[in-house]
Design goal:
By secondary structure, the protein is of the alpha+beta class. It contains 20 helices and 14 strands. A hairpin with a 6-residue loop joins strand 13 and strand 14. This is Protein O-mannosyl-transferase 1 isoform X4.
Amino acid sequence: MKRVFFLDGSGPPLGHMLLALGGYLGGFDGNFLWNRIGAEYSSNVPVWSLRLLPALAGAFSVPMAYQIVLELRFSHCAAMGAALLMLIENALITQSRLILLEALLIFFNLLSVLCYLKFSNLQQHSPFSLSWWFWLVLTGVACSCTVGIKYMGVFTYLLVLSVAAAHAWHLVGDQTLSNVSALGTWGWGAPTGRSRQCFSALSQACVCCHLLARAVALLVIPALMYLLFFYIHLILLFRSGPHDQVMSSAFQASLEGGLARITRGQPLEVAYGSQVTLKSVFGKPVPCWLHSHQSTYPMIYENGRGSSHQQQVTCYPFKDVNNWWIVKDPGRHQLVVSNPPRPIRHGDTVQLVHGMTARLLNTHDVAAPLSPHAQEVSCYVDHNISMPAQNLWRLEIVNRDTDRDVWKTIMSEVRFVHVNTSAILKLSGAHLPDWGFRQLEVVGEKLSRGFHESTVWNVEEHRYGKSQEQRERELELHSPIQVDVNRNLSFMARFSELQWRMLTLRTDDSEHKYSSTPLEWVTLDTNIAYWLHPKSSAQIHLLGNVVIWASASLATVTYALLFLWYLLRRRRNACDLPEDDWLRWVLAGSLCCGGWAVNYLPFFLMEKTLFLYHYLPALTFQIILLPVVLQHVGDHLCRSQLQRSVFSALVVAWYSSACHVFSTLRPLTYGDTSLSPSELRALRWKDSWDILIRKY
């Protein structure tokens, strides 16, 4: 809302943009600090509009569940059952009533499946019709929105792609394809003996058209939509913010304010005599700049090893005048830029002179303080102990186009290779002890194991030096001379970097009071307390309907066992189900059981703090599967009318119990009723549930 750039490890920006759209429609100006859970909203925050889109998404998920079961060609009764189960699931209600992303993710998950089913059902009788194209393209759009909400949406997208690929594979072998889709469309008669070759070629062309249409709609359109989300995101967030530092210098310079204000007008080409700050491209554990100061390495380290006792070189995570270095020509004494400037190119040999102490960057065959396998890096101090200076470095431009590329401010990513020892200037990432002021260790990595970002640096701040005298030069470091040069990054460069940072961003993995494990979700052994009224005992919890959760898990197991049983029987040529019913049964399981699996099982491999709401997308697929299994049992396993009547009565009793649980947990779902301590204790059906009880 305030156009400030931010980086969120939860995933792509579409979900946040939709929430912001709701705020925009309600007139929200963004002036509210979202820094404390439970804080009172100020009068300028239109809570209703910020909650509008998640609420609409949760509401529309109910009829979509109905439509999905119908498109799977099950009965209206089963479809109504799926919709009603979605309607009385307490956890889905709670999640869709607040400013959260799961309701949006579930909505687009279901929309992707529904659109593909509608498209697939049109394939048999009206391919390439307007409605056929509409549902196919809408499938691609919905899949891209699913991925755009959260990265977990990619698993639902892959599920739809897998089902589409299986259908396309059957399509390739369909010998009637030309008659249905081509002849029926163009009004041709049945093929004669003379025209069989013509129709064979026509059939192949028709198959190619089908495959091409699916590729464009399910691959190209989602990719373009995904790029569009980030394009809008980066256009909207053009101002510098607190998350800038994890991005590269070039990315930061493309934002308004912040680094862009500092670097505006800097010279583009680094020349001999340039004054520069060198930032580590790696940016881990924190963004930092090559740094030195008057302090020297201790004569003897704590472990008994000795050092060179020369001036420390570190990586410092704050902007400081001691971050400035002068790029010197080894063949000249001048520390100023000549006229015209002599640009430095890939492969040139340079010396780096520390701006404030005038000492040269040096490395030698002395072990680094914390990384004994690597060389110590220092600024050379002549102690007259037969240790000559070794201060020549060869510049390598990593992202060069040619071997004669010029070293450029911000844009060039460079390595410094020590001429004498071939060691590479590297950020080790280790924190030095107190004698190094807890700054980060910089070493000369002699045993280079290929390219790594910890060995790559880029010039962030840059000016052309004009003062040869040390005292004048120190004053100059505080007063840069600017030359206007435009360095705007392309959208694809910004997109690629932002995508990589989002995928590799390490969030705080510390345990949370309400964090849980995937195994606890299935049995509903956990809950999340979202809100507690400041005066009364009214509260909102993310807590599921235990009847629905247990039944959904049982339905998944039942489906898996029945599927394996039917599969083994069919292997023995015993077909218990007609072919149409079998295909319908397989498709329902592929989408519902598959949807549950792809939205649940990946969490076992994730090293992040997990919460109960992560299970909700998987739960919705189980809820849709539940009435499908019930109808199958009633239609195919209940042999007599008496068995069907008893089974129907049991289903009604079961659904009544689910409604009763919903009604009982309703005060914790809506938070509109203040309960007494005894009533709250009565709702604590499991010892692991954290129901908040005030102590008066």
